[in-house]
Amino acid sequence: MFSPGHTHQTQTHTHGEAEGLQTHTHRHTCSSGMEAREVPARRKPGDTQTVSEVNNGAPEWLHDHTDDDEGGRPPSVAVRLYVYALHGCLCEVVFTALWDGLGSGDFRLGGHSSLWALPMYAFAIFVIEHLRLRLLARDWPLSARLTAYTLFIYMWEFSWGAGLSMLGACPWDYSGYRFNLGGLVTLEYAAFWALAAFIAEHHVIKNTLRMRLKD
Questions:
Q1: Are 61 and 133 in contact (CB under 8 A)?
Q2: DSSP run (H or E) holding 15
Q3: In terms of pTM, does the model score above 0.90?
């Protein structure tokens, strides 16, 4: 159905007898002088561009398993950083509480963290989010991905620690550990960082990207 003043013109119908192909060109014009609307073409075999990328330029992984029309809009970078920061700080408080409690027998579980941890964890998990996308696209197995994440975490921690040490503000010191480097990183934490990377990839990042926000 068309409103008054709306005309429907069919300009061309070409029927190929040998191939049995049909080409239909439809143009819709309005009397108000609006420009013609183009109907998106159907995807062809081998076309790797996704519908979400055509519509709004967002990568496909921001639309996984969700109907945007029903579920709302995907989380922005700011929202994702906020979630990642809170997750990182919470994990640090829980870990230090249990580590200190088991080591000293103090079961008051007084975990601790630092405000510096907020940007550290936020951007670290944000980088892992994009690293995850590329490694999954290359079919890296879980063990290889966790190794890559752990190596990145060590570089990230050492870089932040070196920078904060120059300001006299580094909130951690691994000097008491046997396999430490400058007191900024230590190999004794490798298994814990790998576990943290696993949780980040399989739960935090995956579920954060599935979030949909209402206007």
A1: yes
A2: strand 6-15
A3: no
| Residues 164, 155: Cα–Cα separation, whole Å | 14
Torsion angle of C-alpha atoms 129, 130, 132, 136, degrees rounded to 10: 140
- CA 104 to CA 127: how far, in whole Å? 35
Q: Please, which residues have CB within 8 angstroms of residue 173's CB and are 6 or more apart in sequence? A: 183
Task: Summarize the chain as % helix, strand, coil (round to 5).
Answer: 50, 10, 35
Would you call 47 exposed, middle or buried from its count of C-beta atoms within 10 A (0-12, 13-18, 19+)? exposed
Per-residue pLDDT of the chain (215 residues; tens, 9 = 90+): 433 434 344 343 434 444 443 444 444 444 444 444 444 445 444 444 443 333 333 445 444 444 444 578 999 999 999 999 999 999 999 999 998 888 888 889 999 999 999 999 999 999 999 999 999 999 999 999 999 999 999 999 999 999 999 999 999 999 999 999 999 999 999 999 999 999 999 999 999 999 999 87
